[in-house]
């Protein structure tokens, strides 16, 4: 129990989320983002692909009104610094075409912040506007960083967004000429509106999870069986697979299903070859140890000297999908230090 509690601290999980997989589907945008920044094992492909170290997605909570979009962002943590906020809505294709004499194929889309709840007419503040083709369909993305920053500071000011669509035709001004997808069962779930926040957790996760050679093996962290070898095998990297299914976390972690943390094992006895990535200090220490110049000096240690970050895509305890980057989680190289 203490070990699993420690593991939760490493992964920054305060409350264990409920098991929602495979029943609940994550937004495709978040799955695509994970695949862009990480390989199948969750290892970061290249530094700088992600803005910040946390991406939170919130789904629209209003299913009736086609103008109103509301997102509960209370899962944001204290001290989390918001870098960017995107309001993502899927524009549906207009089904009936106008008369040919009507050459106006564009409509004006305006996104407002609602200033008060359930006011008619609505008190609202214009955030963004653009022209869109009437007959195209697809995702529209609006930068709403300033507005959402205000909501983060003061949650009671969050009344959601309001969208209007208008166009000028021969009959004058037409309203509600196009609609944006709302969640209506499984068919439209993948097109449900999203609020995506890119943030910095500002937490010093000093406790990385790369087990040492002395860690005990368990069902959730399996090592490959090793051949009988002499105790003087040189320092090298060995496999250590962390299986989220065995830990009991597979009901809410979307990707990856587990990952290879690797660990370092072996001796650092003189002479230290080039492949042992030894520091000058470790080389001197190994010589002093070999020559027995001091009874107190031990052999240098075989430890990770190069680490990569891990990315986790998961449902949080409020069933929002989160992509989080954890530094120094995978040993990519071992050395004598």
From TrEMBL:
<dbReference type="GO" id="GO:0005615">
    <property type="term" value="C:extracellular space"/>
</dbReference>
<dbReference type="InterPro" id="IPR017948">
    <property type="entry name" value="TGFb_CS"/>
</dbReference>
<dbReference type="InterPro" id="IPR001839">
    <property type="entry name" value="TGF-b_C"/>
</dbReference>
<dbReference type="InterPro" id="IPR001111">
    <property type="entry name" value="TGF-b_propeptide"/>
</dbReference>
<feature type="domain" description="TGF-beta family profile">
    <location>
        <begin position="223"/>
        <end position="337"/>
    </location>
</feature>
<keyword id="KW-0964">Secreted</keyword>
<dbReference type="InterPro" id="IPR015615">
    <property type="entry name" value="TGF-beta-rel"/>
</dbReference>
<comment type="similarity">
    <text>Belongs to the TGF-beta family.</text>
</comment>
<feature type="compositionally biased region" description="Low complexity">
    <location>
        <begin position="208"/>
        <end position="225"/>
    </location>
</feature>
<keyword id="KW-0732">Signal</keyword>
<dbReference type="Pfam" id="PF00688">
    <property type="entry name" value="TGFb_propeptide"/>
</dbReference>
<feature type="region of interest" description="Disordered">
    <location>
        <begin position="206"/>
        <end position="225"/>
    </location>
</feature>
<keyword id="KW-0325">Glycoprotein</keyword>
<dbReference type="GO" id="GO:0008083">
    <property type="term" value="F:growth factor activity"/>
</dbReference>
<dbReference type="Pfam" id="PF00019">
    <property type="entry name" value="TGF_beta"/>
</dbReference>
<dbReference type="InterPro" id="IPR029034">
    <property type="entry name" value="Cystine-knot_cytokine"/>
</dbReference>
<dbReference type="GO" id="GO:0005125">
    <property type="term" value="F:cytokine activity"/>
</dbReference>
<protein>
    <submittedName>
        <fullName>BMP7 protein</fullName>
    </submittedName>
</protein>
<keyword id="KW-1015">Disulfide bond</keyword>
<keyword id="KW-0339">Growth factor</keyword>
């Amino acid at each position: 129990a203490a070990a699993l509690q420690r593991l939760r601290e490493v992964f920054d999980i305060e409350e264990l989320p409920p098991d929602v997989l495979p029943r609940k589907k994550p937004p495709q945008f978040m799955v695509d983002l994970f695949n862009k920044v990480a390989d199948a094992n969750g290892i970061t492909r290249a530094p700088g692909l992600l803005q910040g170290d946390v991406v939170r997605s919130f789904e629209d909570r209003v299913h009736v009104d086609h103008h109103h979009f509301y997102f509960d962002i209370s899962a944001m943590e204290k001290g989390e610094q918001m870098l960017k906020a995107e309001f993502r809505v899927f524009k549906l294709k207009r089904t009936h075409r106008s008369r040919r004499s009507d050459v106006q194929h564009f409509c004006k889309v305006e996104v407002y912040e609602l200033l008060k709840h359930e006011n008619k007419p609505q008190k609202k503040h214009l955030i963004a506007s653009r022209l869109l083709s009437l007959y195209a369909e697809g995702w529209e993305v609006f930068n709403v960083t300033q507005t959402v920053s205000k909501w983060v500071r003061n949650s009671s000011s969050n009344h959601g967004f309001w969208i209007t669509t208008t166009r000028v035709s021969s009959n004058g001004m037409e309203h509600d000429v196009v609609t944006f997808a709302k969640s209506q069962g499984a068919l439209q779930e993948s097109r449900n509106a999203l609020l995506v926040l890119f943030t910095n957790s500002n937490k010093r996760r000093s406790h990385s999870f790369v087990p040492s050679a002395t860690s005990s093996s368990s069902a959730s962290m399996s090592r490959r069986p090793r051949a009988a070898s002499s105790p003087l095998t040189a320092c090298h990297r060995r496999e250590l697979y962390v299986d989220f299914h065995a830990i009991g976390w597979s009901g809410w972690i979307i990707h990856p299903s587990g990952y290879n943390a690797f660990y370092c094992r072996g001796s650092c006895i003189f002479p230290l070859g080039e492949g042992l990535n030894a520091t000058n200090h470790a080389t001197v220490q190994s010589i002093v140890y070999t020559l027995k110049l001091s009874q107190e000096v031990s052999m240098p240690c075989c430890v990770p000297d190069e680490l990569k970050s891990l990315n986790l895509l998961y449902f949080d305890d409020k069933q929002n999908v989160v992509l989080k980057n954890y530094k120094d989680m995978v040993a990519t190289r071992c050395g004598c230090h």
